[in-house]
Design brief:
Blueprint: E1 24-27, E2 31-32, E3 45-47, E4 52-61, E5 65-72, E6 78-81, E7 86-88, H1 92-96
Antiparallel strand pairs: 1-4, 1-7, 2-3, 4-5, 5-6
Organism: Rhodomicrobium udaipurense
InterPro entries: Nitrogenase_MoFe_mat_NifZ (IPR007415)
Pfam family, one: NifZ
Length: about 100
């Protein structure tokens, strides 16, 4: 039996996706290969915090989250990421949004 831990009670799929195809986005965190990215070693960096890319696909995970496929410009890696891991480039509202777990 596998225990899948949901990191939120929010069901994003009740609303439209936050990002759309072609949106230029920036990673809020370093993402490393957890073993699911073919051709890369486990632990290898797939994208760095602040790296920019474009949304090239939109999928779902656990019938709860949108997963945005982002092709990063610098590395050429295509990485699946959640909304909370990304921000729109040049969006003043994003720059003012508090990080999860912090007080405004």
């Amino acid at each position: 039996m596998t225990n899948i831990s949901r990191d939120s009670d929010i069901v994003e799929l009740n609303d439209a996706p936050y990002f759309y195809y072609g949106d230029k986005v920036r990673s809020k965190k370093v993402v490393r290969n957890d073993g699911t990215y073919p051709g890369k070693e486990i632990g290898e960096i797939l994208c760095r915090k602040g790296e920019e890319g474009f949304v090239v696909s939109i999928g779902t995970f656990l019938q709860q989250f949108y997963i945005y496929g982002v092709e990063f410009i610098e590395t050429g890696n295509r990485v699946g990421m959640k909304r909370k891991e990304l921000m729109l480039v040049d969006d003043p509202e994003e720059d003012e949004m508090p990080q999860e777990g912090t007080n405004p």
